[in-house]
Amino acid sequence: MNQKIFVIDNFIEGPLAYHDKIAKSFEPEIKADIEKKYPESKIFQDISSILRSNIQVLESKDYVQKERDRSPICCHMESDYIGVLYLTLPLSAWGEVGIKFYSHKETGLDSFPTQEQARNISDIDKTFSQNLENWKEYGSIPIKHNRLILFRSNLWHSYGNGFGSDLNTSMLYKKIIIKNG
Asked: Which site in 60, 81, 121, 139 is 20 to 30 Å from 43, CA atoms measured?
C-alpha cells in the first residue's frame, strides 16, 4: 500500500485499560501482569490488517511528553511506517496538536531525499538542520484519545509539544516503528 498517512479513531477496545497499562508501565513490577491482560500483539495484528501487509515491529515504546518537552523534526529511514497511538485522557487532549508534518523550504521535500534527489544537495546535514526557519509546517493532526496515526516513516515530522504535568494530564502515546515484512 502506498498511502502516506492514515488516521484511525477508536482504534482499540478498552482504551482506558491501555492508558492505565502505559501509566503503570513506568512501574516495572506491575508491567508484566498488565501485558498478559492487554497484549500488544492485537495492536500489531490490526496495524498489519490496515496496511494489508505482514509487518515487523522494530520498536514499540511508550512515551510521556509534559509541558516543557519539545519534539525535533525528524524522519526514520530504517523503517516503512510509524504508528502513534494516543492514550492521553480525553479531557487532557482537548485542543492539543500532536503529529506535525513539514516540508523543507529550500528543497520543497516533504520526505528524506531519494538517492537521485540527494545528489543535488551538497551538505545534507546542513540542509536539513533543526533550524525551524528552514521548515514549513504543512499539516498537523490533533490529539484524540484512542486515535492511531500511521504514516510513512520517511516523512519529515515531529511528535508535537508536550503538555500537562503528570501522567493523567500529559501527552501519553505508544510509538510503533514498523517495517513491511
From this structure: 139
Q: CATH number of the domain that 47 lies in?
A: 2.60.120
Distance from C-alpha of 121 to C-alpha of 142, rounded to nearest angstrom: 33
Residue numbers of the domain that contains 143 = 5-180
Q: How many Cα atoms are found within 13 Å in the side-chain-facing hemisphere of 35?
A: 11
pTM of the complete model: 0.85
Quick: pLDDT tens for 72-127: 899 998 999 999 999 888 788 788 899 999 998 888 889 887 778 877 777 676 66
Overall domain count for the chain: 1
Q: Which of 76, 52, 41 is nearest to 155 (CA)?
A: 76
Distance CA 170, CA 25 (A): 15
What would the DSSP string read from start to end of 64-92?
EE-TT-----B--SS-SEEEEEE---HHH
